[in-house]
Amino acid sequence: MPGEMGEGSTMVAESTQEWFRGLVRETQQRFGELSRLQEEPERFRARVERDGVIVHVAPGGNLVDLRLEPSAMRLGAEELAAAILRAQREGLAEANRLYAAAVDDATGRTVDVSALVTQRIDTSALRDHAEELDR
User: Fold this and answer.
1) CA dihedral 35, 38, 39, 41 (to 10 degrees)
2) What CATH fold (topology level) applies to the domain 16-134?
3) What's the DSSP call for residue 16?
4) How far is CA 43 from CA 12, 26, 37, 74, in A?
5) pTM for this one?
6) Which of 50, 55, 59, 96 has the fewest CB atoms below 10 angstroms from its CB?
7) Phi first, then psi: what are they for 49, rounded to 5°?
8) pLDDT tens string 73-88
9) Mean pLDDT value across residues 40-68
């Protein structure tokens, strides 16, 4: 009869089942690696020194530490503010790069996280691809 399974046959071939089990193991391992990234956030902090301003910045832009050397104190208020902002922005870019590289390594580069972080990805192509998948 149609739809009946013969003796010894299975719904899914053993090779497919083994492939799927391997995929599950690999996915669990990658999620474990991603979880471990969260356990050591200081690893991704960037240090930038500019015009006597020293900043430590976390991914996402949080300013973790700010130190002003005596040379920074000679700057005018606007110059000092600009130096702090420049250092923070440079730190942000570096911290995001460090974190994206670690995520790339943890995920096996299945997604180009570096491109997402640095906004080098063509989002219109992603939208087009998503629309194709929805069809």
Assistant:
1) 160
2) Ybab; Chain: A; (3.30.1310)
3) H
4) 44, 24, 9, 32
5) 0.59
6) 50
7) -125, 125
8) 999 999 999 999 999 9
9) 91
